[in-house]
């Protein structure tokens, strides 16, 4: 893998996680919470969102060593107590990042699906397919219902109060559960990623 490929991969990953986080902030603003606005996080300027380790160092090391990369940006802050509807506001704020990544994947996936008619260069397919893959991966991974991933917030808003002890357990042991999932169970996400990529683009992963 060349340095140019690595540069594009990391750049796409950074912008994808930035859009993911900014989407949380804008939906929180829509529901009445201005925290992200007050701290200057409603911007696509990546410098406002980058986590040095999670956005740059780790993705670069993973890409060089394993040919893939994953990472994160600093979470956009919001205060659920400021939301007009705390339950559904929290649900939609949590869902916003996932939906933003899926929307990006669908837009560029459809471009890829209809691109053969225009005979684009090979570099086009690398960039567009990378955008689709990264955004599907971000969406699917963030739906895993383990804190602090978005899937846990979505799940917790839908569960009745009788599940409070279960949610407390997940929150208490979230780091251990998340590490265990990444190392031992994350492979179960690949068939989902592969299916969605093929379904959207018409190409096999």
UniProtKB/TrEMBL annotation:
Its main location: membrane. It is a multi-pass membrane protein. GO terms for biological process: proteolysis. Its cofactor is Zn(2+). The keyword Cell membrane applies. InterPro entries: Metallopeptidase_M50B, Peptidase_M50, Rip2-like. It is found in: Cell membrane. This is Peptidase M50 domain-containing protein. It comes from Candidatus Nomurabacteria bacterium RIFCSPHIGHO2_01_FULL_40_20.
């Amino acid at each position: 893998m060349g340095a140019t490929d690595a540069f594009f991969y990391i750049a796409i990953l950074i912008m994808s996680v930035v859009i993911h986080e900014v989407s949380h902030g804008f939906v929180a603003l829509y529901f009445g919470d201005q925290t992200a606005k007050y701290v200057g996080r409603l911007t696509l300027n990546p410098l406002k969102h980058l986590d040095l380790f999670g956005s740059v160092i780790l993705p670069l090391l993973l890409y060089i060593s394993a040919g893939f990369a994953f990472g994160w940006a600093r979470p956009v802050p919001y205060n659920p107590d400021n939301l007009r509807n705390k339950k559904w506001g929290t649900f939609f704020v949590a869902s916003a990042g996932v939906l933003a990544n899926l929307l990006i994947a669908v837009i560029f996936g459809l471009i890829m699906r209809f691109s053969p008619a225009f005979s684009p260069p090979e570099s086009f397919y690398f960039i567009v397919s990378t955008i689709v893959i990264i955004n599907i991966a971000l969406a699917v991974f963030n739906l895993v219902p383990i804190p602090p991933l978005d899937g846990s917030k979505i799940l917790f808003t839908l569960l009745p109060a009788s599940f409070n002890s279960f949610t407390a357990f997940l929150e208490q042991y979230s780091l251990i559960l998340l590490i265990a999932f990444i190392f031992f169970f994350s492979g179960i996400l690949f068939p989902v990623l592969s299916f969605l990529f093929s379904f959207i683009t018409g190409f096999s992963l």
